[in-house]
Design brief:
The protein has ten helices and six strands. By secondary structure, it is of the alpha/beta class. The protein has one domain: Rossmann fold (3-Layer(aba) Sandwich). The longest helix is centred in the first third of the chain and has 13 residues. Bound molecules: adenosine-5'-triphosphate. Adenosine-5'-triphosphate (ATP) binds next to helix 1, strand 4, helix 5 and helix 9.
Length: about 210
């Protein structure tokens, strides 16, 4: 079973996230891509975001009708309020998806990440362990070049597990979407209708 783990704030989830997840699924023949909103981002521990439950519900709506895409609560807020570290998430995924010897042997785990997020990898918790814990699919994002990615110095052995997926070119960010929502924009092509309806019903982002 080939499983992609795609973590993020998803505040809110948008069509850029959808394009990334679908492209990774198709290019790497993934059986399942788990889109997992994070309870507390380690690099932005004090950032304010919509509540976790709303972000998870919106990710569920984003995935609706998409083959092989699923929302996951694996990065729900920790009971002790500590940040969600990807290295721990990967351990938990291996424990749940590969709980028997046979399933563990068959499990192939991929981390799906946008180019901008991959550039911050040296700041993540235990980056060397992370690179060894899974295969990596680094997806292109407007404004980030192949040369930029070279600035992440990878030991030769680890570089083999990092794959670049350059077919995605979607100029959408959650920051821009939040500004558009706050400004009261009516037609928001960056969001799926289900996610937009949820935002309006729950009065998120000033709606
Ligand atoms: P923000 O603008 O608030 O920083 P964001 O749009 O980058 O948000 P996140 O939820 O922080 O969204 O991103 C989760 C993951 O999705 C990250 O790995 C990020 O690089 C990736 N990602 C988000 N949008 C895109 C996009 N348009 N193209 C490629 N990757 C993306």
């Amino acid at each position: 079973m080939r499983v992609g783990y795609f973590g993020g704030t998803f505040d809110p989830p948008h069509r850029g996230h959808l394009a990334v997840a679908c492209a990774a699924r198709d290019a790497f023949s993934l059986d399942l891509v788990l889109l997992a909103p994070t309870g507390k981002q380690p690099l932005k521990p004090d950032a304010r975001s919509a509540p976790f439950a709303d972000r998870l519900a919106m990710v569920e709506l984003l995935c609706e009708g998409e083959v092989g895409l699923e929302a996951s609560a694996i990065d729900a807020p920790r009971p002790d309020g500590s940040p969600n570290y990807t290295i721990d998430t990967l351990d938990r995924l291996r424990a749940t998806l590969g709980s028997t010897e046979a399933s563990a042997a068959r499990l192939e785990l991929f981390v799906v990440v946008g180019a901008d997020a991959f550039l911050s990898l040296p700041l993540w918790h235990r980056p060397e362990g992370l690179l060894r814990a899974a295969e990596w699919i680094v997806v292109s994002r407007p404004g980030f070049s192949r040369e930029d990615l070279r600035s992440v110095a990878l030991p030769e052995d680890d570089a083999e597990r990092v794959h670049l997926l350059e077919s995605v070119d979607v100029p959408i960010s959650a920051t821009d979407v939040r500004s558009q929502l706050l400004a009261g924009e009516r037609r928001l092509e960056s969001l799926t209708p289900g996610v937009l309806a949820y935002i309006e019903a729950r009065h998120l982002y000033g709606r």
